[in-house]
Amino acid sequence: MKFGKPLGAIGAVAALAMSLSACAGNPAGGDPGTGGKVIIGIKFDQPGLGLKVGDNYEGFDVEVARYVAKDLGYTEVEFKESPSAQRETLLQSDQVKMIFATYSITDDRKKKVSFAGPYFIAGQDLLVSASNTDITGPETLNGKKLCSVVGSTSAKKIKDTIANQVQLQEYDTYSKCVEALASGSIDAVTTDNVILAGFAAQSQYSGKLKVVGKPFSTERYGVGIKQGDTKLCTAINAALEKMVADGSWKKALDATVGPSGFTPDAATNPPKADAC
Ligand code: GLU
Question: Domain boundaries in the chain?
């Protein structure tokens, strides 16, 4: 009893300190420079960009993520699948610290999250069967069955522009759209050209699919982070600049996107990061 009061006071202080650090701490990773593990969101089904193969991960987004994580001092990376429609929620709920997942920077998304980068510029395009001759651009989609992904800029663009002319089927991943195209149940898939080229080059679709090749939007791939985390944004932008300067950006792109035969727009790539 004699020590009850002082011990109680120390206990209360310790409990307060612990709860404060729990509040400040992000379970998906600490601030840049503090080391430890970081949880990063990527796509698991986009060949050339973010693809899970067994226990491994490959693609340009994966390579950029690994470079940035290392430059920021993290010692371990855990990848978490981040489908298009779940990205903002995954960041807001601290399930991932950063997202590298063909994630276009948009004003709408900036209402919920922030972005570092961009680190790549793509454009929305169409994927059709290799034998198709009548779909040559978005203006030729009248009456066609089109597939895209929930929560993507690709689906939004169709809804905002030509929704009354097409039947839009939305899945949660592009791989499901491409399967539907290959089986003949839809006429075209729409999303970014670099994503479509990766699918068209997959061995199971070899010779069966083609990218139309007339991009009709500008998609600036950013690194999604928690809204307002300027410190993290600044550190990521420095890492991205370094990745371009030391040749790693080009090397990673050639090794991952290169095999699909896709040629990135040299006038816009590699892009300069926006101010944080
Ligand atoms: N870049 C577009 C977007 O962020 C389409 C690709 C995707 O859904 O990841 O919505």
Answer: 29-122+220-260, 124-211
